[in-house]
Each structure stands twice: as C-alpha cells, then as structure tokens.
Amino acid sequence: MILKAANIKKYYYNSESVIKAVDGININVEKGDFIAVMGQSGSGKSTLLKCLATFIPIDSGELIIDGNQINYKNRKSLLETRRHDIGYIFQEYNLLEHLTVEENMILPLIISGNVGKAELRDKVEKLAGELGIEDLLNKYPGEISGGQKQRCACARALINSPQIVFADEPTGALDSKSSEKFLELIYDLNNNLGTTIIMATHNIIAASYTKRTVFLKDGKIIEQISRQNGHSYKDSIVQTVAFN
C-alpha cells in the first residue's frame, strides 16, 4: 500500500459555523492505482487532495505515505516526502512565466539539489520525449497553448519520479481536444509506466479513464465504484452522479 488515510478530518471555522471540508475519510491507495475523486463544488475534493498530498495539515486522523506516518511538526521529514514521494498537477498549471519550459521542468530537481548536470539532462530528454514536448523546451509558458502548458506541468510533477501524482481538476482549463489528449497521456502513464495517480474532477469523461472513482459529499465518502469486466464503468459513474 502506497498511501493510507485513516479517519482524517479537516475543519474550517468562522464566526457562524464549522465547515467540515474533510470529515472522517478513510482511503487506501495501492501502487499503480488510478483513482478519481468526484463531487459537486464544495464537496471537499480539492481539500482532500491537498490533505493527501500533505499540502494542508489534517486536524486529526492518520496519514501514511510509503510506510511513513506523516508528522507535520517534523519539517525536514515533511519536505523529503514532498520532494521524493509527491507530484502535483494544478488546474491552472502554476508554471513560472519567466522560466522556459525546461527550466520549469527541472525546478524540483534544482530544489532537491541531489542531481548532477548529466543526470538532469537525461531526465529532461527522456521525460520530454515521453510527453511529446521536446520541441517546447526553450519556449516560455506565454508562447504555448493550454494543452501544452498542462503537459509541461505534468512533466514538472513527474521529473522526480514521485510515488504518487495528484491532479487537481487537470482538464478544467482545457478545451475538449486538449482535455482528451491529456487524459490519454495520464492514462498511458498509469497503464504503461505504473504511475499511481489520484485525480480530483467533476468531469465524468475524465473519471471514466480511471480504475476507481470515489464520490464525496459534504466532506464524506458516500460511494466508491471500480472498473470491472462486464460492466460499463462510465455508465456506473453517470448513474452514481445522477442519484447523488
């Protein structure tokens, strides 16, 4: 098991109420899983993703990644987990506009400080080839399309060979053609390379590319369905969304 969340909670408080963004969620993720987290706006899916990726500290419960229990007070251990175990693809790409595509890609490697120039070059060339962005390396984000930006964001998330890649509404800012290409890309990463992926999405088509879909409502898991032989996975997703 690559990730385990046991009864994790994340609440937000204001003067009038308590918002239970993540309310006692249990989830187990095996190596090579491809999981969609679905729910309406406000259901808690983005907050859950950020909690699982250690970006937001949980209020209670237990989070274990690659056999290590996450301790938010141990800053050094937390940073090591983020650098080596976690890759994150944002909806709005989060590319630095003053850096080239290649410079955006290698930023996590530079921060880690443990990769020599030759290894860095090998990683960039190999990953850029796999993602079809080898012709974009010297361009700046402002010079490329939305779909190309998302591929670059994917490359940055993968450059450190993380244990788990999180994708938060990765097709939300893409047109239908770019969205389809990106979904085919991450499907291949999971199916051919065994990359573990957890993706928050409201898109039924995006969810249909995964192996398992977890449905959230008011910060709780209300249902889970898995791809099975002899059943239409997409139809099951549609039906679950319709009745919830």
UniProtKB/TrEMBL annotation:
Residues 3-243 form the ABC transporter domain. The keyword Transport applies. Keywords: ATP-binding, Nucleotide-binding, Transport. SUPFAM superfamilies: P-loop containing nucleoside triphosphate hydrolases. InterPro entries: AAA+_ATPase, ABC_transporter-like_ATP-bd, MacB-like_ATP-bd, P-loop_NTPase. PROSITE patterns: ABC_TRANSPORTER_2. It comes from the Bacteria. Belongs to the ABC transporter superfamily. It holds the Pfam family ABC_tran. This is ABC transporter ATP-binding protein. GO terms for molecular function: ATP binding. Signal peptide: none annotated.
